[in-house]
Amino acid sequence: MISTLGILVVLLGWEYAILSRYGVQAKRLLVAGVLLGTTLVLLPTLPAPGIAAAILVLLTGFRRGNRILMGIAIAALVVFVIAFYYYLALTLFWKSLILLSSGIACFGLRVLFVRMIWKAEAAQ
Q1: Cα–Cα distance between 38 and 11 in angstroms, integer?
Q2: Residue 20 vs residue 53, higher pLDDT
Q3: What DSSP letter does each residue of the chain carry, written as one string?
Q4: Interval 73-86: pLDDT, tens
Q5: Residue 26 gets which letter from DSSP?
Q6: Does residue 45 contact residue 1 with C-beta atoms inside 8 Å?
Q7: Is residue 95 within 8 Å of 85, Cβ to Cβ?
Q8: CA–CA distance from 86 to each of 8, 50, 82 (Å)?
Q9: Residue 43 region, left (φ>0) first, then alpha (ψ -120 to 50), else beta?
Q10: For the CA atoms of 20, 2, 85, 110, what is the dihedral angle to 10 degrees?
């Protein structure tokens, strides 16, 4: 659990550095949404530090423009998420509710970010 929190701190710093490098720092609401979203996604996975590490490697691959590293990170992320889901000590009903709620949350974040980007583009 402590290792996941450490990786989360590094991941949030890395995300902030990447966002500020691409000039998104001026859109504070977007930056806050990305950092809050990352925190909310990783909090339920505290017992599984591999998920946070795979996301960190994926972000590093994106930043460096290395598709091979991104592919390895996506494969590791898929393996870690499947293993985490498999070893959850919950019934299938609760697991399905978790998947449903996370899908709805991801869709809602996508709609929110698309609207924010459209408003920003319309303002320019």
Answers
A1: 9
A2: 53
A3: -HHHHHHHHHHHHHHHHHHHHTTGGG-HHHHHHHHHHHHHHHGGGTT-HHHHHHHHHHHHHHHHT-HHHHHHHHHHHHHHHHHHHHT--S-HHHHHHHHHHHHHHHHHHHHHHHHHHHHHHHH-
A4: 999 999 998 888 88
A5: G
A6: no
A7: yes
A8: 23, 14, 6
A9: alpha
A10: -20
> Of residues 35 and 117, which shows the higher confidence score?
35
- Structure tokens belonging to residue 123: 């303002």
pLDDT per position as a tens digit, 41-68: 888 888 888 888 998 999 899 888 899 9
* Spatial separation of the C-alpha atoms in residues 85 and 18, rounded to whole Å: 30
pTM of the model as a whole: 0.71
